[in-house]
Specification:
The chain is α+β, with helices and mostly antiparallel strands and 129 residues long. It contains two helices and five strands, in the order ββαβαββ. It is 13% helix and 16% strand. Bound molecules: FE2/S2 (inorganic) cluster. The site of FE2/S2 (inorganic) cluster (FES) has 13 residues, from loops.
């Protein structure tokens, strides 16, 4: 007699990213949020400094799932610009479900392009605080 063992495992390893007004998308785990917003959600988010925590044009407002950890570079830049209530999407990894508002987009910015595409890894190298 043959016995067939089947194990069904529910494994949702891809976090869900919701961008207000655009929809909800499965994104690769630990992808930079700025890249997920641009490439997976198809939003024309700005990233003028190329994802280096300098320009703040990649800023987003969190609706849900705001990360508690922050890179030292993001913390320093937000403080220097006296920005509150926003986060720098170039300094955040998609490691859990999150919902954001893309409040800084190419459309209406007067800029010729969104900026150099950020590298796959956080730059400068992430120091979590
Ligand atoms: S601060 Fe410039 S792209 Fe994030």
């Amino acid at each position: 007699m043959h016995r067939l063992n089947i194990t069904v495992t529910y494994n949702r390893s891809m976090p869900r990213l919701t961008v207000d007004g655009y929809g909800t998308f499965d994104v690769p785990a630990d992808k930079r949020l700025v890249l997920a917003i641009e490439q997976d959600a198809g939003v024309d988010i700005l990233h003028a400094c190329g994802g280096n925590a300098r320009c703040t044009t990649c800023r987003v407002e969190f609706i849900d799932g705001e990360p508690s950890k922050m890179t030292a570079a993001e913390k320093e830049r937000l403080a220097a610009r006296e920005l509150v209530g926003v986060r720098l999407s170039c300094q955040i990894l998609c490691d859990h479900d999150m919902a954001v508002r893309a409040i800084s987009r190419l459309e209406g910015s007067g800029r010729p392009d969104p900026g150099k595409t950020p590298e796959d890894s956080i730059t400068p190298p992430a120091q979590w605080v």
